[in-house]
Amino acid sequence: MVDLDLYRIFYIVAKYGNLTKASEELFISQPAVSQAIRKLEEQLGGKLFDRKSRGIVLTETGGKQMFEIVQDALNMLKNAEVKFKEMKNSVTGNLRISAANSVITHFLMRYIKKYHEMYPNVRIMLKDATTKETVDAVKENRADIGFVNLPVYDKDIILTGQTGEMDVIFVASEKYADLFGKEITLKEVVENPILMLDTSTVSSKEIYSFFESMDVHVTPEFEVSSVELLTEMAKSGFGIACIPRRYILEQLEKKELFEIKVSPAPPVRYIGSVVSKDVDNYPFVIKEFIRMLDENQYS
Predict the structure, then answer these.
(1) Over pLDDT 90: what percentage of the chain?
(2) Residue 291's CATH number
(3) Which of 67, 202, 262, 285 has its CA 20 to 30 A from that of 189?
């Protein structure tokens, strides 16, 4: 298929009948314009212009007919762009999202930002909630879409897809530099002060279950209620934090925290999106957000 830009250049050249004026309109050099016309003629297999003393004119057989077709096509594209902008600004409604704040911050923010740019008049409401609270909110129509820790088993909701994964790692400040650059066992890591999220979170419960399955007893030095506080305490040297890698990419890159390799490593945890069984009757604003997620799964 011929590059659309070649057709745009052809249209401007035909419109002015002059390569110099066309190059000024297109903000490219005259040789580049001439090269584009030659390339288009080669791809189409025929001449589009005749060179005259006062400029260039469309050929009677091919050039003039192609100009009319290209002009109509470009006008259709322009109209489509206008209609899209009108549609974008006319779409209104509410989008209610339920998820843990950490999931919103580290997984959903890029989708929410993109969606808001596409549909600025849609009101987006975010609700911080645990997996159980999110499932209940979706079932009771207090949320349109929820993001939960997988697996989730409930016959009254539909899992629409997996939107992300989290591998939990152990990190610490330079205070624990003697543990960097080598692999240690779970029993060795718990000989140090351990920082954990409190047991009200699913992720924390899974980590405790993991320790139990490995026959390792852990008594945290500190249990905290948020990822942000856990990160700050680890940076301040209070102990070794058990935290999803994705939540601390910036701190790892800035070398404010360092990973401690532990064997065996905690299992990877997955985040999924859920909706009610009435999803077929959802309005456009909700279906469009789900569509956008589906197109970007695992990214």
Answers:
(1) 60
(2) 3.40.190.10
(3) 202
Q: Which tokens sit at 70?
A: 């290209």
Residues 137-190 have pLDDT tens digits of 999 999 999 999 888 889 999 988 777 788 899 999 999 999 999 999 999 999
Measure CA of the first residue to CA of the last residue in the chain; give whole Å.
30
We report the CATH number of the domain holding residue 22 as 1.10.10.10
pLDDT tens track for 197-228: 888 776 788 888 899 999 999 999 999 988 89
Whether residue 283 has a cis bond before it, omega within 30° of 0? no
